Amino acid sequence: MNTIKVWDPFVRIGHWLLAGGFLVAYLSGDEWMDIHIWAGYLVFGVVVFRIMWGAVGTPPARFRSFLRPISAVKRHMLQLLRLNPPAYAGHNPAGGWMVVALLLTLLLVTLSGIATLGTEGAGPLAGTAIAAFLGEEGWEEVHEVLTNLALVLVAVHIAGVAVESFFTGENLPKSMVTGIKEIHTREKS
Ligand code: HEM
């Protein structure tokens, strides 16, 4: 067995800031608006950075290195159903699309939060046509629906990480801390 460096520090620090920021924003949502807003801006900043890093970052961080055709996703899911998924050096085909779903949903969650703030006369969208477009109740509703979608995706993401770690024998959360993956014989690039 060999080890390789996969996740660069931006990916790793970004991931845990994103996970922490999302948790804090979710828990503070109803009562601590100041904390909620700053945690939301943190999530927004990390997501925007990660999307740009997906274009110009280190090879395993680039979208084009882990976004594979739907046929590869199907194949991976079938292998998973047979309880025998191969390990990948980067994101597996299903995980790769989950990364995109998470990033886009979190982008929309935070943008709708900024629009809601704008309807209350605060933040960068205060007094703009975008804030007026749906009004306070409308943007709040959109923000809540998208947040619920993000919660579902996060739950599926964490379950996926646990299942893949179990069946491939890899400790994926540890790799997201250290950046290092252990290469097994059935590893794919
Ligand atoms: C206990 C909680 C969590 C654990 C253990 C965890 C673990 C992981 C692991 C192991 C990966 C890499 C998967 C792979 O090897 O392909 C990953 C990727 C990712 N996770 Fe999580 N995660 C957690 C929570 C979250 C939350 C709450 C979010 C979003 C709000 C999130 C968003 C992401 C994203 C966007 C990626 C892609 C990383 C990148 O390529 O930059 N995760 N996570």
Mean pLDDT: 95
The biggest sheet amounts to: 2 strands, antiparallel
**Would you identify the CATH architecture?**
Up-down Bundle
- Per DSSP E runs of 2 or more residues, the count of β-strands stands at 2
Strand residue percentage: under 5%
Tally the structural domains.
Answer: 1
Helix content: over 70%
**Overall outline:** elongated
Ligand roster: protoporphyrin IX containing FE
Distance between the termini: 15 Å
> What is the CATH first-level class name?
Mainly Alpha
Order of helices and strands: EHHHHHHHE
Looking at CATH, the homologous superfamily is Transmembrane di-heme cytochromes, Chain C
Strand order of the largest sheet: 1-2
Task: Describe the fold and architecture.
- With 189 residues, this protein is mainly alpha-helical.
- The chain has one domain (2-183): Transmembrane di-heme cytochromes, Chain C (Fumarate Reductase Cytochrome B subunit).
- It has helices at 9-28, 33-56, 63-66, 70-81, 93-119, 129-168, 172-178; strands at 2-5, 180-183.
- It has a two-stranded antiparallel ribbon.
- α1 (9-28) packs antiparallel against α2 (33-56).
- The two termini are 15 Å apart.
- The mean pLDDT is 95.
- Bound molecules: protoporphyrin IX containing FE.
- Protoporphyrin IX containing FE (HEM) is lined by residues 11, 14-15, 18-19, 22, 50, 61, 91, 95, 99, 102-103, 106, 154, 157-158, 161, 172-173, 175-176.
